[in-house]
Every structure is written in C-alpha cells, then in structure tokens.
Design brief:
Distance between the termini: 28 Å
Largest sheet: 6 strands, mixed
Protein name: ABC transporter ATP-binding protein
Shape: globular
Number of helices: 8
Structural class: alpha/beta
Helix content: 25-40%
GO molecular function: ATP binding
Bound molecules: adenosine-5'-diphosphate
Mean pLDDT: 95
Strand order of the largest sheet: 5-6-7-3-8-9
Order of helices and strands: EEEHEHEHHHEHEHEEH
Keywords: ATP-binding, Nucleotide-binding, Transport
Family: Belongs to the ABC transporter superfamily.
Organism: Actinoallomurus liliacearum
Number of strands: 9
Length: 218
C-alpha cells in the first residue's frame, strides 16, 4: 500500500504538487491521470525519495522509501528518464542491475520473457525503439519481484500490440496482489488499464474513485 499525505512540492514560484492525499491499494491497477504538467512525475519521484517534499509525506507499506530495507526488492519503478548504458546488450544491462542488487541472474531471462523482449535479449540498447526501451525499463522494474510497482507513462511509445501486451502484464501483476500505480495523460488509455483512478490537475486532487464511477460522472 502507498499512502500519500498532504504532499506539496514547489519549484521556485510554481506549485507542482499541492496538498495531495490519496492511497494506492494492492490487488488492482490504480491509474494516475492528469494532463501534462499536472504533477504526476513529481509525485512519483517523491514516492521514491528522489525529490524532497516541501510538506507532507509518502509512506510505502508504512515507511518512507529511504527507510525500506532492500528498496529495489520492495518497489519497482519506471521513470521517464531511467538511465541505461546504451552501448550494452539488453540482457547485460539487466544482469548488471541484478548483480548490483544481489538478485539471482536467472531472473533476467524471466523478466525479458514477461515484457516480450526475449527475442532481442542480445541486441544493443542503442538500436531499441522507444517501445522496446519502455519494455526494458519495465523488465528492470520487475527484476526484484517487488510487491509495489510505480510506472510513469509505461504505454508511451508502444505500438498497439505492445500496449495490449504491457496492459495485460500490468493487470496480471495487480491480480497477483501487487500494488500497481500507472500514470497517463490519456483518459481512454486509463479506462482500459485501471480499475481505480486518482485524477490530478495543477498538482491538486480532482477525483479518487473507481474508473466505472468516473466514466459515469464525466
Ligand atoms: P506531469 O508528470 O504530470 O507531466 P510534472 O510532475 O513533470 O508533471 O510537472 C509538474 C509541474 O512542475 C510542471 O509545471 C513542471 O513544469 C514543473 N516541474 C517539474 N519538474 C521540475 C523541475 N525539475 N524544475 C522546475 N519545474 C519543474
Ligand atoms: P559512462 O562510462 O558513460 O560515464 P557510467 O558507467 O558512469 O557511464 O554509467 C552511466 C549509467 O549507466 C549510470 O546510470 C549507471 O548506473 C549505468 N551503468 C553503469 N554500468 C552499467 C552496466 N554495466 N549496465 C547497465 N547500466 C550501467
């Protein structure tokens, strides 16, 4: 479970996140919906301890991210600017991540299959399309088999087949009892992906409801 409580972040005079509170529960995909610039990435970065809030806090299973033991095994994340060494082969990138986090390297083959990249495991990341890079980022997030997953715009850049593949993966991961938060600026995309919706605009909470209720009300 993720608890966001009264979270506020300012950049100079801009209030990026404004007294935001919501809870992300396990067992379903929660969509994090809002237009570009609404504050989704900033909120997710604060969940991961990469940005410090001006006010408020985020608790992941009751603790701030920094106080989790073995954080990569607790929380998997795909952010917009995830660093990948572009000259490396996809499988070598994942092996390196596995080794540096004491995750068995046998897991690399599993996560490549989960995202549908086993056919290009030996290809260099430099030649990857945006969609393939997204899949690789998702594979990296899954390496430690974490119970909590945060994905910032995971369907961006994917072709229609990739969207269906990754959408089904997200749903399956949630159905296994994981806590899954997925951001998007597209309502139609979220309606097909999520069961619960947290909607923000200009850093503020606009709705926190089921997709079915949100669609009926809007
Ligand atoms: P979203 O992910 O919903 O597109 P962001 O969290 O990226 O929104 O941005 C929220 C607001 O904060 C925007 O006004 C954006 O310009 C601003 N912002 C985000 N990151 C920075 C930064 N590092 N420096 C200054 N302003 C930022
Ligand atoms: P450079 O040698 O170009 O300065 P670095 O080795 O410092 O690059 O790494 C750049 C990025 O790639 C960093 O985010 C680092 O965490 C990551 N990285 C470093 N070594 C590896 C590796 N073997 N496989 C995958 N990523 C790596």
């Amino acid at each position: 479970m993720i608890e966001v409580r009264n979270l506020t972040k300012r950049y100079g005079g801009t209030v990026a996140v404004d007294r935001l509170s919501f809870t992300v529960r396990p067992g379903q995909v929660t969509g994090f919906l809002g237009p570009n610039g609404a504050g989704k990435s900033t909120t997710m970065r604060m969940m991961l301890g990469l940005d410090r809030p001006a006010e408020g806090r985020v608790l992941i299973d009751g603790r701030p991210y920094e106080r989790l033991t073995e954080p990569l095994r607790r929380v998997g994340a795909l952010l917009e600017a995830t660093a990948v060494h572009r000259g490396r082969r996809a499988q070598d990138h994942l092996r390196w991540l596995a080794r540096s986090n004491r995750i068995p390297e046998t897991r690399v083959r599993e996560v490549l299959a989960m995202v549908g990249l086993e056919g290009v495991a030996r290809k260099r990341v430099r030649g990857f399309s945006l969609g393939m890079s997204q899949r690789l980022g998702i594979a990296a997030a899954l390496l430690g088999d974490p119970p909590i997953l945060l994905f910032d715009e995971p369907l961006n850049g994917l072709d229609p087949e990739g969207i269906v593949w990754i959408r089904n993966l997200l749903k399956a991961l949630a159905a296994e009892g994981r806590t899954v938060l997925v951001s998007s600026h597209l309502m139609g995309e979220m309606a097909l992906t999520a069961e619960h919706l947290v909607v923000i605009g200009r850093g503020r909470l606009l709705a926190d409801t089921t997709v079915a209720e949100f669609v009926t009300a809007h």
